[in-house]
From TrEMBL:
The lineage of its organism: Eukaryota, Fungi, Dikarya, Basidiomycota, Agaricomycotina. SUPFAM superfamilies: NAD(P)-binding Rossmann-fold domains. Residues 20-254 form the NAD-dependent epimerase/dehydratase domain. This is GDP-L-fucose synthase. Signal peptide: none annotated. It comes from the Eukaryota. Its EC number is 1.1.1.271. It is an enzyme of class 1 (oxidoreductase). InterPro entries: Epimerase_deHydtase, GDP_fucose/colitose_synth, NAD(P)-bd_dom_sf. It comes from Kwoniella dendrophila CBS 6074.
Length: 343
């Protein structure tokens, strides 16, 4: 039964069914997906397959918080599959200052995308959660079945509850209608095309931008918090390849963690030092401990991913070394600072 005000389902016909629609296609992860699809050869595991048409949406084409606009754009492209990346995203400090906006924007976007995908019978939707969906008080490492075992950390409860709900929505659509909607859980992502805005950035783009300004203005490089918290970072182009693997090979409704190994946690202080080196910064460094540290650590296990990739016959996945990925991100930032970077 369709909901009040929504049109009856309009199935995709076989001739219309080669479109892969990426919501949030203009963002950090979306631009990495575009890069991988355009740069990997067709015979590689992650390249664009013959006949596939990839469409990368941005908010300028459709505000996904509005279900009517979402219907219009989905009916225009008639996707066979959807990678749903669009979200209101931000670092610790953006989340702390706008819990309601993070909650509502993400709830609305997720509802529109999943409901319209259901209506037009999209064959598979892969949505994106984040490791902040996990409970704050839980035994480590984080594994997929622990998502709903307790309250998330208070620093980003709006965003994390909206993201958690995607897993519930996926199960409800599957349970009632058989829809193949699933989700992935990446750790902290960084790379070319990131959001370098000082108010809303995650830690790596935020620190790259601050280090650049400190060098230029000959002022101290200020790192927020104690520098002690630990994070697992994933390079956006590695994540993009794993997304493509999930789209093609992953069969479950339950989420799957996309992460480097558990032992690859990096303290924020080491991140700051790596940025100092990559930027060749020689000035003073200060830690502003009046600013929040957020969650101390949230180490995630990638054992489900490793096991299933092996079982699917995919060759061993090599993550880009952190230093190389950081240097490529810094290079992109320096090239794009005056024209193109989101700052
Ligand atoms: P991002 O760079 O901020 O990009 C967000 C994307 O969403 C942009 O393409 C943006 O379009 C689009 N968008 C935002 N509001 C929209 C709206 N109302 N209607 C339509 N599109 C809208 O984010 P990202 O880092 O690539 O994140 C991608 C996914 O990964 C998200 O689901 C996020 O929750 C998840 N994730 C990210 C991280 C991380 O560290 N970055 C970690 C874990 C999970 P415009 O740019 O055109 O406005
Ligand atoms: P999280 O991983 O979801 O907590 O989000 P972030 O990517 O924003 O990382 C937050 C961690 O980095 C916290 O421990 C912050 O104290 C620390 N941090 C240090 N300097 C900065 C900064 O300039 N911006 C941000 N966003 N975080 C910073």
């Amino acid at each position: 039964m369709s909901t009040i005000g929504s049109p009856p389902p309009t199935p995709v016909s076989a001739t219309q069914s080669n479109v892969i629609l990426v919501t949030g296609g203009s963002g950090l992860v979306g631009s990495a997906l575009r890069y991988v699809v355009e740069h990997e050869t067709a015979d590689s595991t992650y390249g664009k397959r013959k006949g596939e048409e990839w469409i990368f949406l941005s908010s300028s084409e459709c505000d996904l918080r509005d279900i009517q606009q979402t219907r219009k754009v989905f009916n225009k492209y008639r996707p066979k599959e959807v990678i749903h990346l669009a979200a209101r995203v931000g670092g610790l400090f953006a989340n702390m200052s706008s819990q309601q906006t993070f909650l509502r924007d993400n709830l609305l976007m997720n509802d529109s995308v999943l409901q319209v995908s259901h209506e037009i019978r999209v064959k598979k939707v892969v949505s994106c959660l984040s490791t902040c969906v996990f409970p704050d008080q839980v035994t480590y490492p984080l594994t997929e079945e622990k998502i709903h075992l307790g309250q998330p950390h208070s620093s980003n409860f709006g965003y994390s509850h909206a993201k958690r709900l995607i897993d519930i929505q996926n199960h409800a659509y599957h349970d009632q209608f058989g829809d193949q909607f699933t989700s992935v859980i990446p750790t902290n992502v960084f790379g070319p095309g990131d959001n370098y805005n000082l108010q809303s950035a995650h830690v790596i783009p935020g620190l790259i931008h601050k280090c650049y300004l400190a060098k230029k203005n000959q002022t101290p490089f200020v790192v927020f918090g104690s520098g002690k918290p630990l994070r697992q970072f994933i390079y956006s182009r590695d994540l993009a390849k794993l997304f493509i693997w999930v789209l093609r090979e992953y069969k479950e409704i339950d989420p799957i963690i996309l992460s480097v190994a558990e032992e690859d946690e990096v303290p924020i202080k080491e991140v700051a030092n790596a940025i100092i080196e990559a930027m060749n910064f020689r000035g003073p460094v200060e830690y502003d401990t009046s600013k929040a540290d957020g969650q101390y650590r949230k180490p995630a296990s990638n054992s489900k991913l490793t096991k299933l990739m092996k079982e699917s016959g995919t060759k061993h996945f090599e993550f880009t070394p952190f230093k190389t990925a950081l240097e490529e991100s810094v290079e992109w930032f320096l090239e794009s600072y005056d024209n193109g970077a989101r700052i």
